[in-house]
Structure formats: structure tokens, C-alpha cells
Amino acid sequence: MIKNYYFKGISLIEILVIFAGLGLLVAIVMPQFYNIRKNQVLKSAVGDVLSTVNKARSRTLASMNSSTYGVHFQSDKVIIFKGTIFSALDVNNETINIFSPASITNVTLGGVSDVVGDLYFNRIYGTPSTTGTVTISTGSSSKILTINQSGNISSN
């Protein structure tokens, strides 16, 4: 009587080859996922800023609470404020946060370039107090939002 012994299972070399293949796959794919995430965060931040400026303009044109509204830009947030002068202590301010790695890196309004800036809208025509650009960056890529004389905002 001859017995055939078959070894069942996986050898150590086969396990090492599988882990090496998975490690190589992860090393190739993970940077791409990081870039996709950064681009998505940038798109989200651009959308948030666009909608915030449009919201302030709409509130002004609707004469909500018989007031004008404006937008205050900071590196990590955009704030809708009531009136023509921004006050950080006003309880009516509406804050929209910009999430990392995206941030507002440059605000150029009325020829003045800074990381912080304010603009408000005319109650009758909806025109902004000043025109200019807002740059949102994630380090490697950026978008420039342009606020024109009619109060419309667009991105490149």
C-alpha cells in the first residue's frame, strides 16, 4: 500500500511574495488617492466660497432685515456679516469653515493684497464695495475666484 501525502497550505515564500505585491500596490496607489483627496477638498472649498459670496449678495438684494451683507475672508474661513463693517464679535455672523489642506492664501480686493479681506454689497444694485480676486490653494494646486463689478463671482 502506497500512501501519497499531499501538503496543503501556503509556504512562507508564497506569503512573502503576496505581501511584497500588496506593498508595491499600496506604494503606487496611495499617492494617487492623496492627490484625489486634495483636489476634492479644493473643489469643496471653492464651492463653499462661491456659495457664501452669492448668499451674502442675495441677502442684500432681498433686503433681509433691511440691511446690507458682506463677506469677510480669512485663511481658514469665510464669514457672512451684517452691515458694511465686519465685527468678529457680532453674534449674527455666519461662519463657513475651509477644511485643510485647502486654505485662502491671497485676497486682493481693491488693489490691496492680503490674506484677510472684506467686501459688502450695495442694497439696490447688488454691486460689491470692491472687486478683486480670492486665491484658494492646497499647496500644489490653486484656484482663483474673481469678483467682478456686477457682484458675480467666478472661478478659473
The number of helical elements comes to 1
Largest sheet entry: 5 strands, antiparallel
Order of helices and strands: HEEEEEEEEE
Sequence stretches where pLDDT stays below 50 over 5 or more residues: none
Number of strands: 9
Multimerization state: single chain
Proportion of β residues?
A: 25-35%
Helix content: 25-40%
Overall geometry = elongated
Side-by-side strand order of the widest sheet: 5-4-7-8-9
Termini gap: 82 Å
> Which structural class fits the helix and strand makeup?
alpha+beta
Give the helices and strands, then pairings.
Elements: H1 12-61, E1 69-73, E2 77-82, E3 94-97, E4 103-109, E5 112-114, E6 117-120, E7 132-137, E8 142-147, E9 153-155
Antiparallel strand pairs: 1-2, 1-6, 2-3, 4-5, 4-7, 7-8, 8-9
List its salient traits:
single chain; 156 residues; alpha+beta; 9 strands; 28% strand
